[in-house]
UniProtKB/TrEMBL annotation:
InterPro entries for the chain: Cation_efflux, Cation_efflux_CTD, Cation_efflux_CTD_sf, Cation_efflux_TM, Cation_efflux_TMD_sf, CDF/SLC30A
Lineage: Bacteria, Bacillati, Actinomycetota, Actinomycetes, Kitasatosporales
Family to which the UniProt record says this protein belongs: Belongs to the cation diffusion facilitator (CDF) transporter (TC 2.A.4) family. SLC30A subfamily.
Residue ranges constituting the Cation efflux protein cytoplasmic domain according to the UniProt record: 249-318
Transmembrane in keyword set: yes
Protein name: Cation diffusion facilitator family transporter
Transmembrane domains' residue ranges: 48-73, 79-96, 116-135, 147-170, 191-209
Biased composition (Basic and acidic residues): 16-31
SUPFAM superfamilies, sorted: Cation efflux protein cytoplasmic domain-like, Cation efflux protein transmembrane domain-like
Biased composition regions of type Polar residues, renumbered to the chain: 1-11
UniProt-annotated stretches for the region Disordered: 1-39
Lipid bilayer topology: Multi-pass membrane protein
Superkingdom, taxonomy of origin: Bacteria
């Protein structure tokens, strides 16, 4: 590498774990590449999602008719919630197919983030439906219509059974994916909602207290808001390139800077490509007579063994100090104090002096 007219030794690496991406044949001379594909996990079984989708769509049609006949907002809210369930599964299936496409052209990571966009759409639909249902429920608290308690109770109990089967189907898919988890949360919340609706139907049937229907709807709304906010927060964190939960960039930066021969670590970035795929990049400076390749291998081992990060891109250079330095191979080379980076991004982590 040439800096300010002087030459320094530089080593770069881009290493991936089993979920990495690249040419199946590898790339000679770019140590750390291996042939693999960032495909969707085989555990995310499309057949289970499709089975849950068909079950839900069939029940939505029946429940919607009964909701209008019985005059129950709680049943209608459940039907709308189940409609968002169906939409979330459709989005999940589409996202799974798109994200499985290999990287090409301008999409250097492929379409992995489609899964995260799907999770955002799921969260948004939950919140929009919650706003409308909440408004309708509040109106019914002040002016409750006549509700057929027995129809509400029977339909809700059938809904509990349908959602139990659908939830079981969804649990068979790969829930480590935020995309799949979003669809699963939709259905799980709907299961709780049907239980609440069944209780409301029983109250209406036994006591004639029609407001129980609206109260059950508000409980459903609360569940929808919580699930929607959680999905938006988690997917937004990924889209904003935030560090994954459980990984402290400052702590990792200090740990890397403590490694033998390392003098400084900066431009450290840790982010999530998509659910379950963490990536890290950093610029590492080593002592003038240090071995960049040995340092790189040591740091990659630390990241993999201590933090579980195997998708790494490390730029390793000799620390620039004016004058001559002896490389690991014994050859003299010139180094310069000109900064390696015109503009640093993030904190700089420097090592404490090492005893040799």
């Amino acid at each position: 590498m040439s800096i300010g007219g002087s030459t320094v030794t530089s080593a770069h690496t881009h290493r991936h774990g089993p979920e990495g991406h690249g040419d199946p044949g590898g790339h000679d001379g770019h140590g750390g590449h291996s042939g693999h594909s960032h495909g969707v996990s085989a555990d995310a079984d499309r057949r289970w999602l499709t089975a849950a989708l068909l079950l839900i769509v069939g029940f939505i049609a029946v429940e919607s008719i009964i909701a209008f006949v019985a005059g129950s907002l709680a049943l209608l809210s459940d039907a709308i919630h189940m409609l968002t369930d169906a939409l979330s599964i459709v989005l999940a299936l589409v996202a799974m197919r798109l994200s499985a496409r290999p990287a090409r052209g301008r999409y250097t990571f492929g379409l992995k983030r489609v899964e995260i966009l799907s999770a955002q759409a799921n969260g948004l639909t939950l919140l929009l439906a919650a706003v409308w249902l909440g408004y309708e429920a509040i109106q019914r608290l002040f002016d409750p219509p006549e509700v057929s308690g027995w129809m509400v109770l029977v339909t809700a109990l059938v809904g509990v059974a349908v959602n139990l089967v659908a939830t079981w189907c969804m649990s068979k898919a790969n829930r480590s994916s935020l995309n799949i988890e979003g669809a699963y949360q939709h259905i799980l919340n709907d299961l709780f909602a049907f239980i609440g609706t069944a209780i409301a139907g029983a109250i209406v049937l036994l006591t004639g207290f029609a407001r129980a229907d609206a109260i059950a709807t508000l409980l459903v709304v609360a569940l929808m808001i919580k699930a929607g906010v959680d999905l938006l927060r988690e997917s937004g964190h990924i889209l904003l390139e935030g560090a994954p939960a459980g990984l402290d960039p400052d702590a990792i930066g200090r740990r890397l800077a403590e490694a033998p021969q390392v003098t400084e670590v900066h431009d450290l970035h840790i982010w999530t490509i998509t659910s379950g795929q963490t990536a890290l990049s950093a610029h590492v400076l080593v002592e003038a007579d240090g071995d960049c390749h040995i340092v790189r291998d040591d740091l990659e081992r630390v990241l993999a063994e201590e933090y579980g990060i195997t998708h790494t891109t490390l730029q390793v250079d000799h620390h620039a100090e004016d004058g001559l330095a002896v490389s690991a191979g014994g050859a003299l080379h010139t180094v310069s104090s000109t900064p390696h980076c015109a503009e640093l991004h993030g904190r700089t982590h420097r090592s404490v002096p090492h005893n040799h």
